[in-house]
Write a structure and sequence with these properties.
This protein has 156 residues and is an alpha+beta fold. It contains 4 helices and 11 strands, in the order αβββββαβββααβββ.
């Protein structure tokens, strides 16, 4: 194994679930939860479906960057329309890996690119502000429960 491959496989510390939300329908308001069940089709109560985009995740550390691009002090995570906000662990380093979140196991599959709704919800420039900061999509490997404060770590 190369040094670069070894470095790419490392992670510094576990992360933490900071926020959970579900989208019952395409344009419906986000429902914020303290805990949720994750089934094969995603988070219970969410409009997600089984497959590589069953659960969407965003990194808490990206919210200040998005806010700064929009000239704001902060961004409410409900506006981003993702399912789980994680802090303390670089999600970009987890592509293709299995990650334990609470008692569930997810596999990070692809970037969760922003949609045109971001321009309406965040205002002028919202779509551009989200580019590169929209988070990740994941498929469900093992259903389970997730709650605020649960650990998030790759399975080695």
């Amino acid at each position: 194994m190369s040094d670069l491959h070894d470095m790419m496989a490392r992670w510094a510390q576990p992360g933490t679930v900071a926020w959970i939300g579900v989208r019952p329908a395409r344009a419906a308001d986000i429902q914020v939860l303290d805990r949720a069940e994750i089934s094969d089709s995603g988070i219970e109560g969410d409009r997600g479906r089984a497959g590589k985009r069953a659960v969407t995740l965003v990194q808490a550390e990206h919210l200040p960057a998005i806010a700064s691009y929009l000239g704001r002090d902060q961004i409410d995570p409900t506006l981003l329309r993702r399912n789980i906000m994680v802090s303390g662990l670089n999600l970009a380093g987890l592509k293709g890996r299995e990650v334990q979140i609470g008692t569930a196991v997810l596999r990070f599959t692809t970037i969760c690119a922003p949609c045109s709704l971001m321009e309406r919800l965040l205002g002028h420039g919202g779509y551009a502000a989200m580019r590169g900061h929209g988070g990740w999509c994941a498929e469900v490997v093992k259903p389970g429960a997730v709650a605020i404060g649960d650990g998030v770590q790759p399975i080695d």
